[in-house]
C-alpha cells in the first residue's frame, strides 16, 4: 500500500435506514448523529433511519443526512483503525466531508455549512439533469453544442470515462439526450433532482452562499483535498472559502480528481458513507487500484481487516 485516499459520496447515495447500524454499534458514530440533531435543530437521525423516503430525498434533508452518515462512518472507522489518508475528496456535497476529514472545518461548522448549501440549492427550481452512459468520444460536446440552440445545457459531472451528467434548461437537456442516443450513447437516464445542480441556474445560490462562507471559521488542511471545481490539491483555508460557493454552479471533475490522486501515487481508495457509487466509478477510472467501502458494521469490519493485512505487508 503506497498512498491512501478517503472518498465521500454525494447526492443519490442516500437510502432510508442508512447509518442506523453504525449508530447502534459504534459510540463514535452515535456521537456524530447526536451532535447533528442538536446542531441542525431537527432529527437528522430519524430522517436517516426511518425516513420516510419522500422526506429524505428533499435536497434540504438529503445533503445534511448524507454528510452526517458519512462523517459517522468516518469516526467509527477511525475508532477501529489508526489510519490517516494522504489525500481526500468528496463528490459534490461529499467535499464537505473531505474538508472535515482534513481539519478545514469542525463538525458543527461542516453541518451548518451543508445545511445552508442545501437550503439554497433546494430553493432554486427549474431545469433538469440527465446521466449519459457510454457516449462515443466527442459525442457529448457535439450534442451540447447542437442542443444549445434550444437552450442552456452544460456538463454537471465528469463521473467516469463512461459516464457524464448533463444539466441545464429541461428542453435543452432532453434534446441533448435524444441527440446522444442517436450518436450511439448506450443510455440516457433523467435524474430525480429538484433543479439543475452544477449549472449557471445555481449562480445566485452560489453568490448568497459566498456571503455565508465569508463568516465561517476555516483552517488550512492537514492533507490535500482534491477539489471538484478544478481537480487540484487544495490546502489553504482561503482557497476553500473561494471554491465552496463556486462549486455549486461548476462542473464536478470527478474523473480528473481520481486520476490526479493516482498520478500522485494513490493505490488504495476508501469510500466512506452510504452506497457504493464512487467505488463503481473508480473501477472505470482506476481499475488497478484497491477500493474499500465503509457504510455499516460489516463493511467497516471487512475493510479494517483487509487494511490491517495490507499495512502489515501480508
Concise account of the structure shown:
This protein is an alpha/beta fold.
What can you tell me about this protein's structure?
By secondary structure, this protein is an alpha/beta fold. The chain has two domains: 3-124 and 200-311, Malonyl-Coenzyme A Acyl Carrier Protein, domain 2 (3-Layer(aba) Sandwich), CATH 3.40.366; 128-190, Malonyl-CoA ACP transacylase, ACP-binding (Alpha-Beta Plaits). It is 50% helix and 16% strand. It contains 14 helices and ten strands. It has helices at 20-25, 27-40, 44-50, 53-56, 59-80, 94-101, 107-123, 139-147, 170-182, 203-213, 237-247, 254-263, 277-285, 297-311, and strands at 3-8, 87-90, 128-133, 153-160, 163-168, 187-190, 225-226, 233-234, 266-272, 290-294. The strands form three sheets. It has a four-stranded parallel beta sheet, with helices on both faces. Strands 4-5-3-6 form a four-stranded antiparallel beta sheet. Strands 7-8 form a two-stranded antiparallel sheet. A hairpin with a 6-residue loop joins strand 7 and strand 8 (233-234). Helix 5 (59-80) packs parallel to helix 6 and helix 7 (107-123) packs antiparallel against helix 10 (203-213). It starts with a strand and ends with a helix.
Amino acid at each position: 500500500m503506497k498512498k491512501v485516499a478517503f472518498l465521500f459520496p454525494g447526492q443519490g447515495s442516500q437510502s432510508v435506514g442508512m447509518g442506523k447500524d453504525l449508530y447502534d454499534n459504534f459510540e463514535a458514530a452515535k456521537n456524530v448523529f447526536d451532535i447533528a440533531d442538536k446542531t441542525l435543530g431537527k432529527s437528522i437521525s430519524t430522517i436517516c433511519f426511518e425516513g420516510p423516503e419522500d422526506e429524505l430525498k428533499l435536497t434540504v434533508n438529503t445533503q445534511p443526512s448524507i454528510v452526517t452518515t458519512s462523517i459517522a462512518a468516518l469516526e467509527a472507522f477511525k475508532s477501529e483503525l489508526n489510519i490517516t489518508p494522504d489525500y481526500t475528496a468528496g463528490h459534490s456535497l461529499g467535499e464537505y466531508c473531505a474538508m472535515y476529514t482534513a481539519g478545514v472545518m469542525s463538525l458543527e461548522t461542516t453541518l451548518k455549512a451543508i445545511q445552508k448549501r442545501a437550503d439554497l440549492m433546494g430553493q432554486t427550481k427549474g431545469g433538469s439533469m440527465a446521466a449519459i452512459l457510454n457516449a462515443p468520444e466527442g459525442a457529448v460536446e457535439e450534442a451540447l453544442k447542437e442542443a444549445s440552440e434550444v437552450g442552456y445545457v452544460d456538463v454537471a459531472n465528469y463521473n467516469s470515462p463512461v459516464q457524464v451528467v448533463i444539466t441545464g434548461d429541461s428542453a435543452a437537456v432532453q434534446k441533448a439526450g435524444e441527440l446522444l442516443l442517436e450518436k450511439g450513447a448506450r443510455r440516457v437516464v433523467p435524474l430525480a433532482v429538484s433543479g439543475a445542480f452544477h449549472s449557471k441556474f445555481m449562480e445566485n445560490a452560489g453568490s448568497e452562499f459566498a456571503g455565508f462562507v465569508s463568516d465561517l471559521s476555516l483552517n488550512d488542511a492537514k492533507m490535500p483535498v482534491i477539489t471538484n471545481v478544478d481537480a487540484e490539491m487544495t490546502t489553504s483555508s482561503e482557497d476553500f472559502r473561494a471554491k465552496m460557493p463556486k462549486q455549486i454552479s461548476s462542473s464536478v471533475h470527478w474523473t480528473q480528481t481520481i486520476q490526479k490522486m493516482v498520478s500522485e501515487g494513490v493505490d488504495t481508495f476508501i469510500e466512506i458513507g452510504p452506497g457504493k457509487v464512487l467505488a463503481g466509478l473508480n473501477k472505470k477510472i482506476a481499475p488497478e487500484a484497491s477500493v474499500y467501502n465503509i457504510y455499516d458494521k460489516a463493511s467497516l469490519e471487512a475493510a479494517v481487516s483487509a487494511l490491517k493485512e495490507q499495512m502489515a505487508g501480508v
